[in-house]
Amino acid sequence: MKYKVNIAISNRHVHLTEETYNMLFDNEITVKKELNQIGQFAANETVDIVNGDYVIERVRIVGPFRKYNQVEVSASDARKLKLNPPVRTSGDLAGSAPITIRTEKGSIDLTEGCIIADRHVHFNTSEAEKYNVKNNDLIKLYIGGDKSGVMDAHAKVSDDGFYEVHIDTDDASSFLLNTGDEIEMEIIK
User: Fold this and answer.
1) CA-CA distance, 86 to 138, in Å (whole number)?
2) Longest dimension (CA), the chain
3) CA distance 89 to 118
4) What is the pTM of this model?
5) Domains along the chain?
6) I need a surface site. Which of 33, 51, 77, 181 has the fewest CB within 10 A?
7) Helical (H) or strand (E) element with 20
8) Using one digit for the tens of pLDDT, what is the confidence trace for 25-39?
């Protein structure tokens, strides 16, 4: 059975621990914009992500603080940085690509922590019951339009999940998708 779901496009961003944030900034983190995922926000503060001589400036921090430092980039960003990060779910950082996070105050070298985020569909726990979906279930995304196609994604179930698909800017460009576009999904398991 197919269900309707909206797209949310995720640009490159960084998740930081409070300790790392305090090493990189003298001020408290401030909210630029609340995100659909309950309790999450885009911060006013940004960092540069660096691999040797290759830099992407002004990468947004997404809060609140996490228990790990993570840099999420697209494949296009990775090519610009001359990196080969794995496609992973958030928090699965073992063996991921090294990267440096830099501000005017200082920098931190991560031996691992840079990933290309796997496509996923957020569900809160009651929606997961409604759709009979479990965390990490395979989901097929069906995209219509001029550049139609099918993408695989995985379910991401949490108490505070907001029902939407998260894809990166490369996926969005490939299928001519915009944030808010409605597509169809099918839960495969």
Assistant:
1) 19
2) 52
3) 5
4) 0.94
5) 2-7+119-187 (2.40.40.20), 11-117 (no CATH)
6) 33
7) helix 18-24
8) 999 999 999 999 999
